[in-house]
Design a protein that fits this description.
The chain is α/β, with parallel strands linked by helices. It is built from seven helices and 60 strands. Helix 6 packs antiparallel against helix 7.
């Protein structure tokens, strides 16, 4: 961690000490070096700390950004000042340059030197008045503003303060450095340049050849002022500066410009000129990433003959690529991705023989890949992902022997996989997923095996490849990612010999046999998928899988695996997804889920598991999805899961749970629960009103999320089988706004609680096949997002609330097999329901039933509907009667206790009589409410 930073007072003492030594050098020659500037350097160094990990606390984006940037910039960082010695002339110190004649310090390069601390205005650094070059890049001067004292380096020609965590406003005094040739303040944190300072920089720094202000806030600067910069400018880099407005189309005409980077200023708009307008013949680097251009890319782009780097990603260009691009014979990097280019790739691109990086992904290119691309023998990166290419993959791509990255995914390439691609000796990434490739993989490539030792990522998913999996696939020593899912592979999985494998997906195939025991060699395995669609893996889950303790996702679903769940899986420290659904697993769920685990999704649906749920599931504090449906699990409702604050999905359907659901044990149970399915069990008693009261996630409707977000992460999308609109279907992805309650096929009794009307985000509600009585609450009319409602096969009575007819999205309604009476409401969605929605309710009449209503049967309205009980269960009539009786009875009891004291028999009698009376009054109130 290095040296301690000096206090502010100590720094102040050294400042004055150095000032005296500069004014009277002979007086101090015995104590310090004969060059007083050496003392100033020592004091500057002592005011800072040495710290290799010099990143201050920032937000996550800034921290990751600086980490990546400094790794890139400071590849070989070391503490230069660590070797400074007082007894040596500072002109020999690392990073220090002196004038040979005057011995003045004229250059100081402390870039990437692990310096940490603040540079105040009284720093001894500012005593080095003869500096011509100052480079402090790649350190951590946080918190520090850029001091106005930097403006006093009158002879300074090069100033570099990049990547050093400076913040705040760039001082006006910087514009006084009229000798500056290079100014680099790029990639600091929250640095701002305001209009007056910018104007002075433009007017006064007329010798500038390099100006780099990347990541500086320039939102107040007008883009047209860029044309007023020094005509000597060769480098202008303003990447991600929040420039706004219209960009002058002659920006490419700065006379001596060689590097122009205006990328990631997404509030800039403009167009490129159709004529060459005297384009700078020296322009070599052009980055216009995410500027909002309009129209086609003009032919004039081909006149930039010296260009070696062109980035036009996310620029909204349309039309075809101009053939003039084939004239850019010096280009090495060409990035045209994420535009709306159409048509074929010009064959003239094969003339770009110096190119090493070609990125055309996310466009609408059509036709075959021109075979002339096989002439690009220097290319290392080729990305044609997500276009509309057709035809076979040209074998000429096998000539690109320098290629390390090839992505042809999400196109319509057809035919066989060219063996020549597997012969590319330097290829590390090959992505061909989501095409129409057919045929088997080559079974033997022994002569070429040494050539593909560098292959790290191989993705052939979502094609029509068939045959068995060749053994060489599992023998590649460097292979980390293998995606073969969604094909037609058959046979058994071979033995694993590549222990570097991190990601394996063999899902959606027709594989058979057992999981190989050699899976224990995959000690680095993080994501393992053997799931879904016609895979028929059999046998037990090998206990050797316990050695793969780095697993984060384990998906063995939709197979025919048998035996018990290995207990070790519950103790994996980083396992996030454990998906074993739709197998033939038996026994009990592992009893011990360790504290501090990372489980987010546990899915054991569709097995033969039995016994009770282990209470250690409450240790899964990150759990969002728990699906245990379609097993033989018994016991009572697991109320102890209510404390899982992140739980969104709870499925216990089709098991052997029984008993009543008692009141919650925590203050706010299931606060994030959006889907609960406990259907097809033997639950009894009343519906759990107090649980419904606290289902906060079902009460709040966030319209901004609709259709935008899904549960799951990049590698694993949560899916679920639900009873939806009368059909049992699989949701392959679950929208975060999807909410449903399914308590059907149980033994619940009593009335539906009015509080259900608060669950305004509900999409589906199913209480069918129970023994519910009483009225349908009119509060269900508040469920404005409801799409299906099934209350069939109960004993509900009274009329259908007219409020239900106002539900705008209701598609499926089933009120059949109840005891409902009266006229069926009309209007909106109710006009679309047929007889099946109301059958076996002998008291109902009106459309769509053939049974007409009597003239005296009026269309129900809110005022004529049944008087519904309030949340406490009493109507106003009952309360009035009870109040009167209570006054009389209370007066009498008060007199007796005043006269004789408070005997215990009177207390018991009062409590008992009140209980009986209230029950009688409540029953009578219900009976009166049910009469017409």
């Amino acid at each position: 961690m290095g040296f301690c930073c000096l206090t502010y007072n100590y720094q102040l003492f050294f400042f004055f000490f150095c000032l005296l030594s500069l004014l009277f050098p002979s007086s101090f020659s015995s104590s310090f070096s004969s060059n007083p500037q050496c003392s100033a350097l020592l004091h500057f160094n002592n005011s800072l700390c040495l710290d290799r990990d010099n990143s201050p606390p920032l937000d996550s984006f800034a921290s990751s950004f600086y980490y990546r940037s400094n790794i890139h910039m400071c590849d070989n960082s070391y503490p230069k000042t660590g070797s400074w010695k007082e007894d040596k002339d500072c002109c020999s110190w690392d990073g220090v340059e002196c004038d040979n004649a005057t011995r003045h310090v004229i250059g100081l390069d402390l870039s990437c030197s692990w310096l940490n601390g603040s540079i105040h205005s009284n720093s001894s650094l500012f005593l080095l008045r003869h500096l011509r070059s100052l480079n402090l890049a790649g350190n951590s001067f946080n918190p520090s503003l850029i001091s106005s004292e930097f403006g006093n380096f009158e002879t300074l020609t090069h100033l570099n303060l990049s990547y050093s965590y400076f913040s705040g406003k760039i001082p006006y005094e910087i514009s006084q450095l009229s000798s500056l040739v290079s100014l680099d303040l790029s990639y600091n944190y929250l640095l701002i340049i305001e209009t007056p300072v910018w104007k002075r920089v433009v007017d006064n720094l007329t010798l500038l050849r390099e100006l780099l202000l990347d990541w500086t806030d320039m939102s107040s600067i007008r883009p047209n002022s860029l044309m007023n910069l020094s005509s000597s400018l060769t480098t202008l880099s303003l990447h991600d500066c929040d420039l706004r407005g219209k960009l002058e189309n002659n920006i490419l005409c700065l006379p001596n410009i060689q590097t122009l980077d205006l990328g990631y200023n997404f509030n800039l708009e403009g167009s490129l000129p159709n004529s060459n307008c005297n384009f700078s013949s020296s322009l070599k680097f052009l980055d216009l990433f995410e500027i909002r251009f309009s129209g086609e890319l003009p032919d004039s782009i081909g006149s930039l003959k010296s260009l070696n780097h062109l980035n036009l990603q996310y620029c909204n260009f349309t039309g075809s690529i101009p053939t003039s691009l084939g004239s850019l014979t010096q280009i090495t990097h060409l990035i045209l991705s994420s535009n709306n280019f159409i048509g074929p790739i010009p064959a003239l691109l094969g003339n770009l023989t110096q190119i090493t990086y070609l990125d055309l992904f996310e466009n609408k290119f059509t036709g075959p890949i021109p075979s002339s691309l096989g002439n690009l023998t220097h290319i290392t990166y080729l990305n044609l992902y997500e276009n509309m290419f057709t035809g076979p993959i040209p074998s000429s791509l096998g000539n690109l022997t320098q290629m390390t990255y090839l992505d042809l995914s999400q196109n319509s390439f057809r035919g066989l996989l060219p063996l020549s691609l597997l012969n590319l000796p330097n290829l590390s990434t090959l992505r061909l997923y989501n095409n129409q490739l057919v045929g088997p993989l080559p079974s033997h490539i022994c002569p070429q095996l040494d050539l593909i030792f560098h292959l790290i990522r191989l993705s052939l998913s979502s094609n029509s490849l068939n045959g068995t999996l060749p053994s060489w696939l599992f023998s590649l020593p460097s292979l980390e990612m293998l995606g073969l899912d969604d094909n037609e592979f058959i046979g058994e999985i071979g033995e694993f010999k590549c222990n570097s494998l991190d990601y394996l997906d063999l899902g959606y195939n027709k594989l058979q046999g057992s999981i190989p025991r050699s899976i224990s060699r995959l000690v680095n395995l993080t994501y393992l998928y053997f799931f879904v669609s016609n895979n028929s893996l059999t046998g037990e889950i090998p206990f050797l899988i316990c050695n793969a303790s780095s697993l984060e996702v384990l998906d063995l679903s939709h197979n025919s695996l048998s035996g018990m769940i290995p207990k070790c899986l519950a103790n994996f420290s980083v396992l996030s997804v454990l998906d074993l659904r739709m197998n033939k697993l038996r026994g009990t769920i592992p009893a011990t889920f360790a504290k501090g685990n990372k489980f987010r999704n546990i899915n054991f649906n569709g097995n033969q598991l039995e016994g009770q749920l282990p209470r250690s599931l409450a240790n899964c504090r990150n759990l969002e999805v728990l699906d245990l449906g379609n097993n033989k699990i018994n016991g009572t409702f697991p109320y102890w899961l209510e404390s899982l604050l992140k739980l969104r999905v709870l499925v216990l359907r089709s098991n052997r749970f029984q008993g009543s659901i008692s009141n919650p044990k925590t203050k706010f149970p299931f606060p994030n629960l959006r889907i609960i399915d406990i259907s097809n069990n033997q639950f009894s008693g009343s519906l759990p009103r107090k649980y419904f009261k606290y289902l906060k996630a079902m009460m709040n409707v966030d319209e901004s999320e609709v259709g935008l977000k899904y549960m799951g992460d990049y590698y694993y999308q949560d899916s679920l089988n639900v009873m939806m609109k009368g059909l049992y279907i699989e949701l392959v992805r679950i929208q975060t706004v999807f909410t449903t309650i399914d308590f059907s096929n149980n033994r619940f009794i009593g009335e539906m609680p009015k509080i259900l009307g608060r669950l305004k985000s509900l999409k589906g509600l199913n209480f069918s096949h129970n023994n519910l009585t009483g009225y349908i609450p009119s509060s269900l009319g508040n469920l404005t997002n409801l799409e299906w409602l099934d209350l069939s096969f109960n004993k509900l009575s009274g009329e259908i609330p007219m409020q239900l007819a106002e539900l705008p999205w209701l598609e499926v309604l089933d009120l059949s097999h109840n005891q409902l009476i009266g006229r069926i409401p009309l209007g909106k969605q109710f006009n679309t329901f047929d007889n099946d929605s109301y059958m076996e309710n002998l008291g109902l009449c009106g459309f769509p039933l053939s049974r007409t209503c009597n003239n005296g049967t009026k269309q129900p309205t809110p005022s004529t509907l049944q008087k519904e009980e309030p949340e406490n269960g009493f109507g106003w009539q009952a309360v009035s009667i009870g109040y009167g009786c209570g006054v009389i009875f209370g007066t009498l009891m008060g007199y007796l206790m005043f006269k004789f004291g408070k005997p215990k028999w009177i207390v018991r009698m009062v409590i008992l009589e009140q209980h009986i009376m209230l029950r009688r009054l409540k029953n009578n109130a219900y009976k009166r409410g049910g009469r017409k």
